[in-house]
Amino acid sequence: MSRKNTRLLKAALSAMHYTQADEFLSPLTGGAGVIFTLHHVRPEPAGDFEPNRILKITPAFLEAVLRQVLEAGFEILPLDGVAERLRSGSTGRPFACFTFDDGYRDNRDYALPVFRKLGLPFTLFVPSDFPEGQADLWWLVLEEVVRRADTIDLTIAGEAQRFETATLVQKEAAFHAIYWSLRRMDEDGARAIVAELAHSHGVDGRRIASELLLTWDELREMAKDPLVSFGAHTRGHYALAKLPEDRARAEIFESIVRLEEELGRPCRHISYPYGDEMAAGEREFCLAKEAGMQTAVTTRKGLVQAGHKDRLTALPRVSLNGDYQDTRFVKVLMSGVPFALRDAVKRLTGRRAAA
């Protein structure tokens, strides 16, 4: 999301907060619960050029959100409790779950102490290739390439392109353009392009991954804590919807088996990498069900509704985004009002298009 769009969305969320629209409408727009998406938890502020800063929040903000969720009357559950809660049809307290994607070491160093302090559970979704030293964090590699370069030359879909990246504004524009071009490509081709850029600009992707990601030994140590549960995140963090079905199935099934072997506990949950409409759809939801998953989570934005009891492998989440580290915004999102407005606009737009 561009900085302009971020400012507009912040303004909209602030307006909902200050007009108390979230409080007035939440009885109509609230859900059975909310599942939060997190990635990094680190204390240092974002740098001038850090386009992946949206994936990073501070420990202080995490603690503030946990306290806010509790004060709002939500019951913080492990993911194991979600399916049972939805199937029971309970209309009592709404629930909240906290989930981390990718298995970063800062989840242990900075997030775990916060959850321990408050005695609250969370789930770590781990791609099974990552603790093996075979991670391709291409989005972070691309960020480092753009940070170092004054110009970037690459070919996408047969078209040679040059990006000027000497200034901060140029770097942000180039990263955004390249990232979304790659996200629209096939996975193997996109990763090959980033690997070539890394080679050309002297960026060591393996070193970046080694510094950031937990090993199996570290994960096994975390697994001793009863507050920590684990889920699969495929083998190599590919957008499954772009893969042939047999390969997508292998990404899911083999990651589950590997996680169970390494951690010595059953795997009942999975998170789809990227998790948006381009990355996971009905085929993937069926594959997760076929694999015996109790739940599977997307990054499609929204609250969990009672009707999701029949869609347990297509659960939405709400991102704790590094650009929105303000508990006022979280309060508005938990009300469901922004998602209800989004859906109303989509329905209206669809009717106008049909007319």
Q: Can you describe this structure?
A:
With 355 residues, this protein is α/β, with parallel strands linked by helices. It has 14 helices and twelve strands. Helix 2 (21-29) packs parallel to helix 13 (327-335) and helix 6 runs antiparallel to helix 7 (168-183). The chain is globular. It starts with a helix and ends with a helix. The model has no long low-confidence stretch (mean pLDDT 94).
Quickly give the structural class.
alpha/beta
Shape: globular
Distance between the termini: 31 Å
- Please indicate the percent range of residues in DSSP E strands (runs of 2 or more): 15-25%
Oligomeric form:
single chain
| Helical fraction | 40-55%
List keywords for this structure.
16% strand; 355 residues; alpha/beta; two-stranded parallel ribbon; 14 helices; eight-stranded parallel sheet
